[in-house]
């Protein structure tokens, strides 16, 4: 089957859609550009399908290349038979290709290779024919030179057969299926006793079908094994499996050679095949678990980046600390630094009253309406300080505790040094804490996504794959929202479709030298930004005060003539988009248009016409504004204030396989276990909630000693989840 037909079948789309999409990808078009501006060509495939197609296309092309490479390598050994050639053609995975090539792969010196060097391969062939001859009589002919005895000859022949059985694609596949269908993963406590051991106590006596282990448990077990607190093995019914293999190998059980062949089969299984398959299965389990964890991280990251911005507020950002003091910054509504200070309300200085005075003065002088507090060290005490400030000095003020993950990474980065060369590292961190509320996307793109802290076992997964996936998420989010060309930083611009990091820097340099961009066409004057890059990027860049109002919409410059004709159709020109009164009427008239009819009249694609109509009605639109704003607080809630049955509002902070963590305004986030997310069945937490969601929860239980809060989103009667950590997980042998 050719690649186009295979992709069409797998993705359940038309072959013509696949063919045109592949052409667009091969021409160097980015996925955001194709998804937004080439809908007619792709049949309106969305980004998810396009990325899946792109990844699968790469895999299938690599598979095709590997097939040709394996054919060539086997042919060079003069061992490429018609049967092997057909097997290569039929293979649909790289694993199958590697199984076929395995017997022909150059390898280090083995017992089998040593036996072959002694000329014992013909003896192995004779034994495997399972004829009536006695093995000793056959072996006697090979006793010469390097072979001292009949026994040595037979042992060498069995070594050759053992390796052959281990490498045989049919036998490997049979054993592999048996492992997957019946195998158990067993985890036990190792003899080494370390500080980390208790974290893995639920895996000290753990048994589960390898086909049923949840991905997050695979990664946890791997970590425990890596820390040498767990011993892990895979167990199968070996007697039954060898019986199945025997049926494929023993053609004549009455042959005198049958016992030797069976012995070689047992040896090949125990010494070669089983260890190899166990490594392969552990690797596959890990790969699947990593892919799952990466996808959860990616979804959480997307939800975090697309949180609603807090606009039009001057903000006071506080990076809490004890001995070195809390760094405080005031920023205006655009994120520009207005003032910075350091207060010492906590131990050992305990200058509480002075800190209140400093904060009150900054609030009054800079018209602060919101305070953001980093959630790190001394966060709780700083929250108490701010709550007292609101209660006694500034009743109209509100505050928000912000996840400061990555702030320290940003503050010590080259980017932060370029942006604020004269400021202390901690002050830069406080600025980041303030800005990430004003525009989460613009601020968080400055930080390595892996440092943002919304993943699960992110340090245990394939880092290259994680980086690629998270990079694609950031790219998708930036282009989904769009970027204001005259205010965007280089770190934000480099995620715009088609723009490299270098070109993004050149855009900023051009802006600094020549002033604000007046129109999108001016981008072509930027060094290194040619027509192809302009085509990919222009539609995602907005200019709020542009000479041409269309430059502040999602309409691509290539479609400006079409957009103007659509406006003419309703009796307006482009300038109406800048007139608030006229815009209202434009929006009303656009709603009356039949996109399909307009497309037919103007000889244009219906998807493009629909998108243009939507964009004309919302110049400068930011889709994040339609999302709920974060929960602002005025007073403080502590762990001791919580009671079972209490109803609270909270914000989803992180989503993992076993539930969701919710910020309810106390120092520790509470856990809504997957069983408490809904009254109906929940396949996975991401089906119900996402990072940034505002949810109503009820308190199930509070463990003050362990600082654990159990929450529920169910509407029915409350029932606390049992403590499964006290039960033996998995199956009992």
Salient structural properties:
Arc Repressor Mutant, subunit A; 5-stranded mixed β-barrel; Nucleotidyltransferase, domain 5; 5 domains; alpha/beta; Tex N-terminal region-like; 5-stranded mixed β-sheet; 733 residues
Structure notes:
The chain has 733 residues and is α/β, with parallel strands linked by helices. It has five domains: 3-103, Arc Repressor Mutant, subunit A (Orthogonal Bundle); 111-296, Tex N-terminal region-like (Orthogonal Bundle), CATH 1.10.3500; 314-438, Nucleotidyltransferase, domain 5, CATH 3.30.420.140; 479-625, Orthogonal Bundle (DNA polymerase, domain 1); 639-726, Nucleic acid-binding proteins (OB fold (Dihydrolipoamide Acetyltransferase, E2P)), CATH 2.40.50. The protein contains 29 helices and 15 strands. It has a five-stranded mixed sheet with strand order 6-5-4-7-8, with helices on both faces. It is globular and about 105 Å long. Mean pLDDT is 91; it is low at 720-733.
């Amino acid at each position: 089957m050719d690649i186009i037909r295979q992709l069409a079948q797998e993705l359940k789309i038309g072959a013509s859609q696949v063919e045109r999409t592949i052409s667009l990808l091969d021409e160097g078009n980015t996925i955001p550009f194709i998804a937004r501006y080439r809908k007619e060509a792709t049949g309106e495939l969305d980004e998810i399908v396009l990325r899946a197609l792109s990844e699968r296309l790469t895999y299938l092309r690599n598979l095709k290349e590997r097939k040709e490479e394996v054919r060539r390598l086997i042919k060079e050994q003069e061992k490429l038979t018609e049967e092997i050639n057909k097997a290569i053609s039929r293979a649909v995975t790289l694993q199958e290709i590697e199984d076929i090539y395995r017997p022909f792969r150059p390898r280090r010196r083995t017992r089998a290779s040593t036996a072959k060097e002694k000329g014992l391969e013909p003896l192995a062939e004779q034994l495997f024919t399972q004829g009536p001859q006695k093995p000793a009589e056959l072996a006697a002919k090979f006793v010469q030179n390097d072979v001292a005895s009949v026994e040595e000859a037979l042992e060498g022949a069995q070594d050759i057969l053992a390796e052959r059985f281990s490498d045989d694609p049919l036998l490997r596949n049979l054993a592999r299926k048996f492992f997957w269908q019946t195998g158990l993963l067993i985890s036990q406590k190792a003899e080494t006793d370390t500080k980390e051991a208790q974290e893995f106590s639920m895996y000290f006596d753990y048994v589960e079908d390898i086909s049923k282990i949840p991905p997050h448990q695979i990664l946890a077990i791997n970590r425990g094994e890596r820390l040498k607190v767990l011993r892990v093995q895979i167990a199968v019914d070996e007697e039954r499996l060898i019986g199945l293999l025997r049926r494929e190998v023993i053609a004549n059980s009455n042959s005198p050679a049958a016992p030797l062949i069976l012995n070689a089969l047992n040896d090949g299984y125990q010494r070669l095949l089983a260890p190899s398959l166990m490594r392969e299965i552990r690797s596959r389990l890990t790969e699947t678990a990593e892919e799952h964890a990466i996808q959860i991280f990616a979804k959480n990251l997307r939800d975090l980046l697309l949180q609603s911005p807090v606009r039009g507020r001057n903000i006071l950002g506080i990076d809490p600390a004890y001995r070195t003091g809390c760094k405080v910054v005031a920023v205006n509504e655009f994120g520009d630094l207005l003032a910075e200070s350091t207060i010492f309300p906590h131990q050992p200085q305990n200058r509480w009253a002075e800190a209140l005075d400093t904060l009150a003065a900054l609030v009054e002088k800079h018209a602060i309406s919101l305070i953001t507090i980093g959630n790190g060290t001394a966060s709780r005490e700083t929250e108490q300080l701010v709550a007292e400030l609101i209660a006694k000095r500034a009743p109209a003020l509100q505050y928000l505790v912000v996840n400061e993950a990555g702030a320290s990474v940003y503050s010590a980065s080259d980017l932060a040094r370029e942006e604020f060369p004269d400021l202390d590292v901690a002050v830069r961190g406080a600025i980041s804490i303030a800005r990430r509320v004003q525009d989460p996307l613009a601020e968080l793109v400055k930080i390595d996504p892996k440092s943002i802290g919304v993943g699960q076992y992110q340090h245990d997964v394939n880092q290259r794959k994680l980086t690629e996936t998270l990079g694609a998420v950031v790219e998708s989010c930036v282009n989904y929202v769009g970027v204001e060309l005259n205010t965007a930083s280089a770190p934000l611009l480099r995620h715009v479709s088609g723009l490299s990091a270098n070109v993004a820097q050149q855009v900023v340099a051009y802006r600094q030298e020549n002033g604000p961009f007046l129109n999108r066409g001016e981008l072509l004057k930027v060094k290194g930004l040619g027509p192809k890059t302009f085509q990919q990027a222009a539609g995602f860049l907005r200019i709020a005060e542009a000479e041409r109002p269309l430059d502040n919409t999602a309409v691509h410059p290539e479609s400006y003539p079409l957009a103007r004709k659509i406006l003419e159709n309703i009796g307006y020109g482009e300038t109406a988009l800048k007139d608030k009164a006229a815009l209202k009427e434009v929006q009303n008239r656009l709603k009356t248009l039949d996109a399909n009819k307009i497309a037919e009249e103007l000889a244009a694609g219906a998807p493009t016409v629909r998108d243009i109509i939507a964009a004309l009605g919302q110049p400068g639109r930011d889709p994040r504004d339609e999302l709920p704003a974060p929960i602002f607080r005025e007073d403080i809630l502590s762990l001791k204030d919580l009671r079972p049955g209490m109803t609270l509002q909270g914000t989803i902070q992180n989503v993992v396989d076993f539930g969701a963590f919710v910020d309810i305004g106390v120092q520790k986030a509470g856990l809504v276990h997957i069983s408490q997310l809904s009254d109906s069945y929940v396949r996975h937490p991401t089906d119900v909630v996402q990072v940034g969601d505002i949810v109503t929860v009820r308190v199930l239980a509070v463990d003050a000693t362990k600082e654990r809060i159990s929450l529920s989103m169910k509407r029915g009667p409350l029932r606390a989840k049992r403590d499964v950590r006290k039960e033996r997980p998995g199956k009992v042998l």
